[in-house]
UniProtKB/TrEMBL annotation:
Membrane association type: Single-pass type I membrane protein
Protein name: Leucine-rich repeat-containing protein 19
Subcellular location(s) per record: Membrane
One of the GO biological process terms: positive regulation of canonical NF-kappaB signal transduction
Gene: Lrrc19
Molecular functions per Gene Ontology: signaling receptor activity
Domain LRRCT, first and last residues per copy: 176-227
């Protein structure tokens, strides 16, 4: 009786387990077409396929292939490694909303268009290893909101701007010619700040410059060349006409500096911030002097009035009082000159006989007296 009761009570749970197993067996439909020398994705596969392995073929993933893929909307895993794919076109997987694993390792991919991964909102693992990728646009990863693992090993990538936000559990980057200068700081800061595992960190090293070879990209230090480039770029951003310099401009420049300083390793940001602030202040002072300098110079040239100094007054008075003998000599000289001039004037008067002619004397009377 007890056994019967136990069986009756456990029957619903056993039915649920059986249902789950049967559902799992129904939902997982796998097709393996490896090493079939296919040049196209085969048509006529069960539309309920969930795992499709097309590794080691000649597939190029052209337009006809992407149309065929749209029919397999229940795919959760797609393996196209070791094929002939060169370009990942826009909307190649837009109907594969259930896809969780996508493997393109060991192809010839050199171009990934910006909308190549649109629709893959559930993708968790993306493998792009051993290709010919030279540069990656960070916007291509924006649709991958649930991505956990990213493999980029064995490409030609020298720098990588991490999209924001970007959350991963693991990333594989070794085998690339990393340029450990300014272009690395964004990636380096993200690797140090985010809770992400850099797989094979010891062999994920810098290839340039030579002084940083064998440094891990996660710990490579700053270089002097990078400092100068950052300062010159900041000076270009701050170079504007002096008429527009105001408090808001200074605040925006400092905000840009703060955002740029987030891309620097710890321990250098404060020194760089101080240097830029000093540069801004010196530039403002030079502009102020350039504006006010001519005005001050003209004011100094126009100011010609000044007080008579005391020693000049004493000289003037001393010249009049301290040499009385010179005054007497001067007076004698003047009197002598006057006498000479007077004599010269009288030298031109005709000598007379001592008589004074009087016009009132009658001449007839003079004659009668004679």
């Amino acid at each position: 009786m007890k056994i019967t009761c136990i069986m009756i009570l456990s029957w619903p749970f056993s039915m649920l387990l059986l249902a789950d197993k049967s559902q799992t067996s129904k939902t997982e439909v796998k097709y393996n077409f490896t090493e079939k020398n296919y040049s196209l994705i085969p048509v006529g596969i069960n539309n309920n396929v969930t795992i499709l392995d097309l590794s080691y073929n000649q597939i190029t993933l052209n337009i006809s292939d992407t149309k065929v893929l749209q029919m397999y909307s229940l795919l959760t895993e797609l393996y196209l490694n070791e094929n002939k794919v060169t370009v990942l076109h826009n909307n190649s997987f837009c109907n594969l909303s259930n896809l969780e694993i996508l493997n393109f390792c060991r192809n010839h991919i050199s171009i990934i268009q910006q909308g190549a991964f649109v629709g893959l909102s559930k993708l968790k693992q993306l493998f792009l290893c051993q290709n010919k990728i030279f540069q990656l646009n960070p916007d291509i990863f924006i649709p991958l909101s649930n991505l956990n693992v990213l493999s980029l090993q064995g490409n030609l990538i020298s720098s990588f701007d991490v999209p924001q936000p970007f959350y991963l559990e693991s990333i594989i980057l070794h085998g690339n010619p990393w340029n450990c200068t300014c272009s690395l700081f964004n990636l380096q800061n993200w690797l140090n700040a985010a809770n992400v595992i850099l797989e094979n960190e010891s062999i994920t090293t810098c290839s340039y410059p030579d002084v940083l070879k064998n440094y891990s990209i996660k710990t490579a230090p700053f270089t002097a060349d990078c400092h100068s480039k950052l300062i010159s770029r900041l000076n270009e951003d701050l170079y504007i006409p002096f008429q527009t310099i105001n408090t808001s401009t200074l605040n925006s420049s400092l905000n840009n500096l703060t955002r740029n300083s987030e891309h620097e390793p710890l321990g250098k940001s404060w020194a760089f911030l101080a240097g830029v602030i000093i540069t801004v202040l010196v530039t403002s002072l030079l502009i102020f002097l350039a504006i006010k300098g001519p005005v001050w110079y003209n004011s100094l040239l126009n100011y010609n009035h000044h007080r008579l100094e005391e020693h000049e007054t004493e000289t003037y008075e001393g010249g009049l009082t301290r040499n009385p003998s010179s005054l007497s000599q001067t007076a004698d000289t003047i009197s002598e000159d006057t006498t000479v001039i007077f004599d010269q004037l009288h030298s031109f008067v005709v000598d007379d006989d001592g008589f004074i002619e009087d016009k009132y004397i009658d001449t007839h009377e003079l004659c009668e007296e004679k």
